[in-house]
Amino acid sequence: MAETTARRTIPISMLVNGCRHHLAVDPRHTLADLLRDQLGLTGLHLGCEQGVCGACTVHIDGEPVVSCLTLAVEAQDVAIRTVEDLAQDGALSALQQAFLAHGAFQCGYCTPGFLMVGQHLLDQGLATDRDAVREGLSGNICRCTGYEPIIDAILSVAQQEPRA
Ligand code: FES
Ligand code: FES
After folding, report:
1. Which CATH superfamily is domain 94-160 in?
2. Could you state, in order of their start, the residue ranges of all structural domains in the chain?
3. Could you tell me the pTM of the whole model?
4. Class of domain 10-84 as given by CATH
5. Contact 83 CB / ligand 2 (< 6 Å)
6. Angstrom distance (rounded) from CA 9 to CA 139
7. For 36-59, how does the pLDDT look when each residue is reduced to its tens digit (9 = 90+)?
8. pLDDT one-digit tens code per residue, 112-151
9. Of 9, 20, 79, 155, which cross-links 24 as Cys (Cβ 3.0–4.6 Å)?
């Protein structure tokens, strides 16, 4: 029998930014590939593709994850949030507005990852002070801005939010 060269795909179902998707994924592909190439969510950026820079960060079930080191098939039955979900009805989120106000980006390549980690720190009440935010951002690299304006932006939102 002739050997088939057809590539095997695996069916998965997942929530992305609140919408359910049923997809056939190549088991070799990463979650970053799936989100960018199959769903057109190009907000996450690929920098190092080795889990070092954080530019590809998304939330999986509320936790920040580097999508370049996550296989697409691992997304079965999880809820994913990407940077596209921060703005609602065309209005920037408080954190996005704070990044603008504090000049927290220049080229913007790293920004999606910082936003998603920053949002997680805010969601979890972890942006308690400068050191905590710096520690929370330790998996993200920016080559332009320096980190102080990014920390300022996150802290400014934390200080606006009522304590739970
Ligand atoms: S591209 Fe994923 S951590 Fe750098
Ligand atoms: S703004 Fe350019 S890498 Fe961060």
Report:
1. [2Fe-2S]-binding domain (1.10.150.120)
2. 10-84, 94-160
3. 0.94
4. alpha beta
5. no
6. 32
7. 999 999 999 999 999 999 999 999
8. 999 999 999 999 999 999 999 999 999 999 999 889 999 9
9. 9
